[in-house]
Amino acid sequence: MAARVDPDRSEWDVIVLGGAAAGENAAQYATQFSGLEAVLVEAELLGGECSYWACMPSKALLRPAEVLDGGRHVPGVSSLLTGRELDVRAVLARRDTVVNGLDDSSQINWALGVGIDVVRGYGRLAGERAVAVETAAGGTRVLTARHAVVIDTGSCTTVPTIPGMSEARPWTSRDVTNLREVPRRVVVLGGGVVACEAATWLKPLGVEELSVVYRRTGLLARAEPFAGRMVADRLTDAGVRLLPGRSVTEVRRDDPRDTGVGLAHGGEVTVRLDDGSTLVADELVLATGRTPNTQDIGLSSVGCPDGGFLEVDDEQAVRAVDGHWLYAVGDVCGRALLTHMGKYQARIAGEVIAARAKDGRVDGAGSGVPGSADGHRGNPQVTFTDPEVGSAGMTERAARAAGLDVATVEYDMAALAGTYVQREDYFGRAKLVVDRGTDTVVGATFVGSGVAELVHSATTAIVARVPLPVLWHVVPSYPTASEVWLRLLEAYRAEKRRVG
Description:
Pfam families: Pyr_redox_2, Pyr_redox_dim. The protein is an alpha/beta fold. The chain has 16 helices and 21 strands. Strands 1, 2, 3, 4, 5, 6 and 16 form a 7-stranded mixed sheet that branches. A 5-stranded antiparallel sheet has the order 17-18-21-20-19, sandwiched between helices. A 4-stranded parallel sheet has the order 10-9-8-14. Strand 4 and strand 5 form a beta hairpin.
C-alpha cells in the first residue's frame, strides 16, 4: 500500500509524535528493513526546527559574512573587496531558498517515497499506544500503535519570567533566523550558542547598535574557557557591545504587536539591567535556553507528569513508562540538544523497535547498534561563530568533575602551515583532554576558521577509545589544519617526558 498524507486508517505499527529530523529518522529506521508500518504526526512543517528555524537558516545567514571576511584577508582578493558590504537582499533570498520558502513539500515527498504515512494535526498521547490528533478541520482522530510510539516534539525558546518580557513580544530564535528586515538596534539576551551565532550574523547584515547581555562572566560557558574568550574578542572587534555578568530586571515596549515571524513586533524596546542602566533597541532577541515541548502532549494519560524533559534509557525508551512501547528522541529527552545527536538517538530507537517487534528482544546483533551511551560519549558540536568552535567529548572541567585523572595539552593553530595558507592572521587554538588511566582522548576543542571539519576525527578517537600510541600513526595530510593532531600529540609526548 502506497504511503499517503492523512490516510483513512487508524492503526500503524509505529506512531511518531512530531515530524522533525529525529522523528523522521526514527520512522525510517523502524521500518526500512523490518516491514513495519509507520506514521508521522506533525502540526507544523515536516522537518522541524532545524530545517526551517534553526540549523539551516542560521548557517545560510552566517556563510556570506564568513566568505567576505575570508576574502578580505587574502592578498589578491582583498583589494577587490575594499568598501564592499554584504548584499543583504541576496543573503536573505538565499536563506529563503535554503528553507525552501518554509514549504515542507519536499519533506513530505521524502516520507511518502520511503513508505511513511503523514498525518497533519496536533497530536497528544491518549493512553497506552494511542495518540489523539486534532485536525485542521477541527475534528479529532485517534491513532493506535501496534508496537511503539516515539515522541519527537522538540523544544522552544525559554521565555524568562521578567516583568514586561512576554508582553513586549521579544524575538525568539525563529524570528532572528527568519528576519525579513534588519533592525538598526538589537539587544541579544544570552551568552550561549544561539546568542553568539546570532550576534555573528546580525552585525555584518547591518545592525548598527548590537548589545549582548549575559549573566555569566564568559560566553559559551559549556565550552573550554578559551573558546568563549576568543569569540568575545572577535565580537568586540566587530563593534558588538558585550555586557557580561548582567541580567535583565524589566522590559518595556511601545505598541507591542504580533506582526509575524521575522518582522518588527512593535515600537522600540527598553531593557533595564540589574545595575540600573537601560538599553534601548528596535528588537530584543531571546537566546536564553530551550524548554521541551512536553507540557501539552498528553503525558499524564500514561502516568507521567506534564512538562519537563523525558528521562530515557540507552535504548531511548522512556524510563517512567513500563512495557517498552514509549520512546523519546531529540530535544525532549534532554541528553544533547543537537540535531545530529537527536538523529543518532532516533536510529537507536528505530532499530530497537524493529528488533523488539521481530522477536521481542534486543541485543547488539538484533538492533544493529550499541546503546546510545556510546555515541553520547563523543557528543560532537560546532558553534558557527567567528572563529568557529568545534568540540567533542568532555571539557577539562567536565572530565575532572566526572572523577577522571586527566592531562591536557594545547596548541596555537596559527602556527600550522595549513592555517597560514588560509590567512596570514589566522586566529585559533586547540586542546586535548587525555584520560591518564586509559591513555585515550576524552575531549577535544578546536577554535579557528574552518575547524568544523576537524570535529569528526576527534569524535572517532573518543568513541573508539583509540590509544594515543595508535593515534601517533594516524598521519595528517600536509598542509592542512588537521596537522594540529600531530602537533598536539608531539606536545603531549614532550610533556610526559619532561615530568618523567
